[in-house]
Design a protein that fits this description.
The protein is an alpha+beta fold. The chain is built from 24 helices and 10 strands. It has 3 domains: 3-192, no CATH class; 233-445 and 458-498, no CATH class; 547-557 and 564-743, no CATH class.
C-alpha cells in the first residue's frame, strides 16, 4: 500500500507551472546536488533522487506535461475544492515525506510520519526506515513550531513541540533532537505566558495555564530577584514581567506576590503591598490599605517612610501622615513638594496623588481608577472605617474655616514618584510599582536597599529621571487655599472639594500606547535594541486607549546619537487637551480629511471650524499641517463640551475611548460643581517627532489661558502661559485618532 503525498509534480520539484524544460533540468540538478545532510540513510536519499527525476521526466515531456496540466485544471474547476496528490509506493514513502518537508509542509510531514510509526504500520525496531521516520518527525516538529512562532501562534507552536517530544521519547531515539525541542519549548515560555494571559478573561482555563507557566518561569530563575535562568537575562525578565502585569488582575497579582513573598522574595513583598494599596484605593477598602501598610513596615526596608506617610493619609491619620512625611522625606522630594503648596498637608496630598497615579494604580487588567482623593474620602465605606479608627485610637477632628477658592484646572507640572523609566520604552502595560533597572542615586533621595538589583523603588525629584512619565498636580504659582494642619476627615474632604487639590484630574499613566506600537511588544533590551513579541490574540483595549493630561515642562537634552528611545508620553495639563480650546485649522490641512456628521473639512488657517463641525484624517501618511488640523479640531470640540454645550456628533471619529471618557468625566465634574470653563489655546507650531505606519507623535507649542465660572462668577483664572506638549495619534483602520498626550520632553 502506498502513500498519497499532498503535492503535485511542480511543487515536488520546486518549479512553477510556467517553467520551461531547460529550467526544469537545471532545478533537478540543483536538488540532486543539495541532498539533506541531517543523517538520513542512503536508501532514503536514493529514493528521493528517483522521485525528483520522475517528476522532471514528466515535466520535460511536452505531451505528458500537457495532459498532466489538463488534469490539474480539471481539479481546480471541480464543484468541490480538490487537492492534487501523488501516489508514492510504500518503498519510497520516507523519501516522499522528506520531499514534502522540503516543500514547506512540516505539519503534514509530522502527522504522516507519526502515523507511519504507529502500529500496525510501525517499522521493525532498529530498522533504517524507523530511524529515518523518527528523524523526519523531529525535524518536522521543529520546522512547524518555527512557522507558528513566526505567525505569533505561540501556544500552538508549544503544543506541537510537546507532541514531538513525547513521540521521540517513546521511540527512545535522537537525544540531540529531543534536546533541541526542549530548548525551543523553554524559549517559548515567555511568549506563551503573554499569549495565554492576554486572552479574554472568560478563557479561564488558558489564563490558569498562563499563570502556572509564569510561576514556573519565576521558580526556574530562583525568584523575582534570581538570575539562575541562563536563557532569560535579569534585565530581559524584568522588562517582560512589567508588561505581563498589565494582563493580570489586581487579585491575581496580590495572590502571586503573596506566594512569592512567603518564599523569601523581598521584591514580591513590596509588590504585594502596592497591589493591596491599589485594590484598597480603587475599591474603597481601607482595610486592604491598612494591610499594605503593615506589610510595608514589617519589611524593614530603608527609605519607605514617605510611602508609609501616603498610606497613613489614606487611612485618615492626617496629622501622623504629615508629621511622618515632613520628618522622613529627602531634601529633593521636600523641595519638589514645597513648589506644590505652602502648607504641609497640601504638600503631602500632592505627593500622595502623584504616587497613586504613577506607581500604584496603573498596571492592572481590571482596575481603572483616578487618584481622586476627594472621591475616596467622600466614600461612605471609607468614612465609616476612618471614623471607627478615630474612635478606637482617640483621634479627633475639627474643621477650621476655609475660603472658597478653586484651583486652575490647567496648572500642572511633572512630579517625582516611584515610576518606571523602562516602561516608556515598551509602549505596553501600565507603570510598574517599582523600578526595574538600576537608577543613579542622589544623597537626598530615599535610598531603597538593594537599589542596584533592579527591583527596588527609588523616589526622585523633578528632572532627576527625565524618562519617567509624570503626573500633573497643582502649579507652583497656585498656592492659595491649601489645607492647614490639624484637619480631620470631614474638613479634609471639604477642603479637597473646594481647595487647590480639587479637580486636578490626575489619570493613570499611559499603558498601551505602543501598540499603536503593537500590543505585543515585550522584552526590550537596555542597549536600545528591541525584540517585539506579540500575543496571537491582541485586543484593541491594550493599545493607546489611556487618557492623560498635559503638563508644561522645559525640553531636556536629546538622547545620544543612535540611542533608541521612544517618545515619552506623560500626563497632560487638563485644560490644554482636557479643557478644550478655540482653535484654527490650516487651509492645507484638508488634503484628505473627510466629513463627520455635519462636518466640513478644510477651513482657512486662522479661522476655527464652526461649532459642531469636525474633520477626520484618513491620509495614510499625513503631513504636519494635516495633523495640526486634526489636533485643532479635537481641541475645538473639547472647548465646546467644557463650555457647557452639547458634544459634537462623531467625536469618536477623531479620538479614542480614553480621551473621550476623560472629557466626559471632566464635564460631569464641572456639572456637579455648577461650573463651566472658558478656555483659549492657540497652536503656535507643530513638528512630527516620531512616525510609524500606525502611530505618529506630534509636538505642539501652545499659548494657553482659561477661566472657570460658577453661577455667573469667575472662581478661577489662569494667566496666559506657554505649553509644549506631545500628541500621539493612532491609525484605526484608515482613520487617524488621538490616542494620548503629554508634556514634550
Amino acid at each position: 500500500m502506498g502513500l498519497d503525498l499532498p503535492l503535485d509534480h511542480f511543487r515536488l520539484l520546486g518549479v512553477s507551472p510556467a517553467t520551461d524544460v531547460q529550467t526544469v533540468l537545471r532545478t533537478l540538478q540543483l536538488r540532486l546536488d543539495r541532498a539533506p545532510d541531517q543523517g538520513y540513510t542512503d536508501e532514503t536519499l536514493r529514493a528521493r533522487a528517483d522521485l525528483l527525476k520522475a517528476s522532471a521526466d514528466l515535466l520535460s515531456d511536452g505531451e505528458r506535461r500537457s495532459a498532466y496540466e489538463a488534469d490539474l485544471t480539471a481539479l481546480a474547476d471541480a464543484p468541490e475544492p480538490l487537492m492534487p496528490a501523488l501516489e508514492i509506493p510504500s518503498s519510497r514513502e520516507v523519501a516522499g515525506l522528506l520531499l514534502l518537508l522540503e516543500a514547506g509542509q512540516p505539519l503534514d510531514v509530522f502527522e504522516l510520519a507519526s502515523r507511519c510509526l504507529q502500529p500496525p504500520q510501525a517499522p521493525a525496531l532498529g530498522s533504517s526506515r524507523e530511524a529515518d521516520l523518527t528523524l523526519l518527525a523531529g525535524e518536522a516538529v521543529l520546522a512547524a513550531a518555527e512557522d507558528y512562532r513566526r505567525e505569533r501562534h505561540y501556544e500552538v507552536a508549544a503544543r506541537i513541540l510537546q507532541q514531538g517530544l513525547q513521540l521521540l521519547q517513546r521511540m527512545g531515539q535522537l537525544p540531540e533532537v529531543r534536546e533541541r525541542i526542549q530548548s525551543e519549548l523553554e524559549a517559548l515560555a515567555p511568549f506563551r505566558v503573554l499569549d495565554l494571559l492576554s486572552r479574554d478573561p472568560s478563557a479561564s482555563r488558558e489564563r490558569e495555564e498562563g499563570l502556572g507557566l509564569l510561576e514556573q518561569l519565576v521558580q526556574r530563575r530562583g525568584g523575582l530577584e534570581g538570575s539562575s535562568d541562563d536563557r532569560f537575562a535579569p534585565e530581559d525578565f524584568q522588562t517582560f514581567f512589567k508588561q505581563i502585569r498589565s494582563f493580570l488582575t489586581v487579585q491575581e497579582q496580590v495572590d502571586l506576590f503573596d506566594r512569592w513573598s512567603q518564599q523569601g522574595s523581598g521584591a514580591a513583598e513590596f509588590l504585594a503591598s502596592i497591589a493591596l494599596t491599589a485594590s484598597g484605593f480603587a475599591q474603597r477598602k481601607p482595610e486592604r490599605i491598612a494591610a499594605a501598610r503593615d506589610r510595608l513596615q514589617a519589611s524593614s526596608r530603608s527609605g519607605i517612610e514617605p510611602l508609609v506617610a501616603n498610606l497613613d493619609l489614606l487611612l485618615g491619620d492626617v496629622d501622623g501622615a504629615v508629621q511622618r512625611f515632613e520628618s522622613t522625606a529627602g531634601a529633593e522630594l521636600k523641595s519638589w513638594a514645597a513648589r506644590q503648596s505652602d502648607e504641609p498637608l497640601g504638600r503631602l496630598c500632592a505627593w500622595c496623588r502623584d504616587w497613586l497615579s504613577r506607581d500604584v494604580l496603573p498596571g492592572y487588567r481590571d482596575l481603572e481608577a483616578d487618584p481622586d482623593l476627594e472621591a475616596y474620602f467622600s466614600d461612605r465605606d471609607v468614612t465609616a472605617w476612618v471614623e471607627r479608627e478615630d474612635r478606637r485610637r482617640g483621634r479627633s477632628f475639627f474643621s477650621p474655616e476655609s475660603t472658597d477658592q478653586h484651583t486652575p484646572s490647567d496648572a500642572s507640572q511633572t512630579v517625582p514618584g516611584l515610576g518606571d523609566p523602562l516602561l516608556t520604552q515598551m509602549g505596553f502595560g501600565g507603570t510598574a510599582a517599582f523600578t526595574l533597572e538600576p537608577v543613579a542615586q542622589s544623597t537626598d533621595v530615599p535610598n531603597w536597599p538593594g537599589a542596584t538589583d533592579g527591583w527596588s523603588p527609588v523616589a526622585s525629584p523633578p528632572g532627576e529621571r527625565p524618562r519617567r512619565r509624570g503626573r500633573p498636580v497643582k502649579h507652583a504659582d497656585d498656592r492659595h487655599g491649601d489645607v492647614p494642619l490639624g484637619w480631620g476627615l470631614r474638613a479634609l474632604v471639604d477642603s479637597l472639594r473646594r481647595g487647590p487639590l480639587a479637580g486636578v484630574g490626575l489619570l493613570p499613566a499611559i499603558a498601551g500606547l505602543g501598540i499603536a506600537l503593537t500590543v505585543g511588544s515585550w522584552l526590550v533590551h537596555r542597549n536600545g535594541s528591541t525584540q517585539l513579541l506579540s500575543p496571537a490574540s491582541s485586543t484593541g483595549s491594550s493599545t493607546g486607549s489611556s487618557t492623560v493630561n498635559h503638563a508644561s515642562k522645559p525640553p531636556v537634552a536629546p538622547p545620544p546619537p543612535g540611542a533608541s528611545v521612544p517618545p515619552k508620553l506623560v500626563p497632560q495639563q487638563p485644560s490644554a487637551t482636557g479643557g478644550g480650546v478655540a482653535t484654527s485649522v490650516p487651509a492645507n490641512a484638508s488634503a484628505k480629511p473627510t466629513a463627520v456628521g455635519n462636518t466640513t473639512a478644510g477651513t482657512q488657517h486662522g479661522a476655527a471650524p464652526p461649532t459642531g463641525q469636525l474633520i477626520t484624517l484618513t491620509t495614510a501618511e499625513p503631513d504636519e499641517a494635516q495633523l495640526r488640523a486634526l489636533l485643532e479640531t479635537w481641541l475645538q470640540a473639547k472647548t465646546t463640551v467644557l463650555s457647557g454645550q452639547n458634544e459634537p456628533n462623531g467625536l469618536d471619529r477623531i479620538a479614542r475611548d480614553g480621551p473621550l471618557q476623560r472629557l466626559k468625566s471632566d464635564r460631569e465634574r464641572d456639572r456637579s460643581l455648577g461650573q463651566t470653563q472658558s478656555i483659549q489655546v492657540k497652536v503656535e507650531q507643530v513638528a512630527i517627532r516620531d512616525r510609524t505606519p500606525h502611530r505618529i507623535a506630534l509636538v505642539a507649542d501652545l499659548q494657553y489661558t482659561d477661566s472657570t465660572q460658577r453661577q455667573g462668577r469667575e472662581v478661577n483664572h489662569t494667566k496666559p502661559t506657554t505649553l509644549r506638549n506631545v500628541y500621539v495619534f493612532g491609525r484605526d483602520g484608515d482613520t487617524w485618532r488621538l490616542a494620548a498626550s503629554g508634556p514634550a520632553r
